[in-house]
Design brief:
By secondary structure, the protein is mainly alpha-helical. It has helices at residues 59-94, 100-152, 156-161, 166-174, and strands at 22-25, 29-31, 34-36, 39-42. The strands form two sheets. It has a two-stranded antiparallel sheet with strand order 1-4. Strands 2-3 form a two-stranded antiparallel ribbon. A hairpin with a 2-residue loop joins strand 2 and strand 3. Helix 1 (59-94) packs antiparallel against helix 2.
Length: 175
C-alpha cells in the first residue's frame, strides 16, 4: 500500500501517523512469502500537504496567486480610506470650512479614486481567482500523473491482493 507523504514510518511493519487519529486496521497481507501487518490511522493532512505535488512549472501561477492575494487584501483598506476622506469633506462643509463648489470638486476627485480602486480591485481579484484555479488544476494533474505512474509499476499480484481491487471487482461482475 503506498504511503502518504505525511506518514511517519516507525518500524518495518506498522505505520503510525498520530496519537489523535482513529485507527482502521487492515488484514494481514502476504508479500513475497512473508506476512506483514499494516495499520493506517486516518488523520487530517497538514496544510503543507497542499503543496506536495508542486513542481517548477507550478511556481508562476503560485507566485501570481500570492501577489494578487496581497494586493486584493490591500484594496479593502484603500476603499475604506477613500470613503473616510469623502465623508470627512461633508463634515468640513457642514462646519463651514469649504464652499459648495469646492465640496463638489473634491468629492468628484474621491469618487473617481474609488471607481479606480474598484475597477483595479475587480481586475486583481479576477487574476487572483484565475491563478489559484490554474494552480489547483496543475496540482490535480500532477497528483493524477504520479498516482497513475505509481500504479503502472506495481506488480500484477499487488492488484490481486487488494480487498476492494480488481479481483473483488471481477467476482462481483460475474455474479
Amino acid at each position: 500500500m503506498p504511503r502518504l507523504p505525511w506518514a511517519k514510518r516507525q518500524d518495518s511493519h506498522v505505520f503510525k501517523l498520530s496519537k489523535h487519529s482513529t485507527a482502521t486496521s487492515h488484514a494481514s497481507e502476504k508479500t513475497h512469502g512473508t506476512t506483514a501487518s499494516e495499520t493506517e490511522d486516518a488523520v487530517a493532512a497538514p496544510w503543507k500537504a497542499l503543496f506536495y505535488f508542486t513542481t517548477k512549472k507550478h511556481i508562476p501561477s503560485l507566485t501570481v496567486g500570492f501577489l494578487t492575494a496581497i494586493i486584493s487584501g490591500a484594496s479593502s483598506p484603500a476603499q475604506s480610506f477613500l470613503i473616510g476622506k469623502a465623508f470627512g469633506l461633508f463634515t468640513t462643509y457642514a462646519a463651514g470650512g469649504i464652499t459648495a463648489k469646492s465640496l463638489l470638486d473634491q468629492e468628484s476627485k474621491y469618487v473617481l479614486y474609488m471607481v479606480a480602486v474598484g475597477v483595479g480591485s475587480w481586475l486583481v481579484r479576477f487574476i487572483f481567482f484565475t491563478s489559484w484555479l490554474s494552480f489547483g488544476e496543475l496540482q490535480a494533474k500532477s497528483a493524477r500523473d504520479r498516482l497513475f505512474t505509481g500504479l503502472l509499476y506495481k506488480d500484477i499480484a499487488w492488484y490481486d491482493r487488494r480487498k476492494h481491487g480488481v479481483g473483488a471487482l471481477s467476482t462481483r461482475l460475474q455474479v
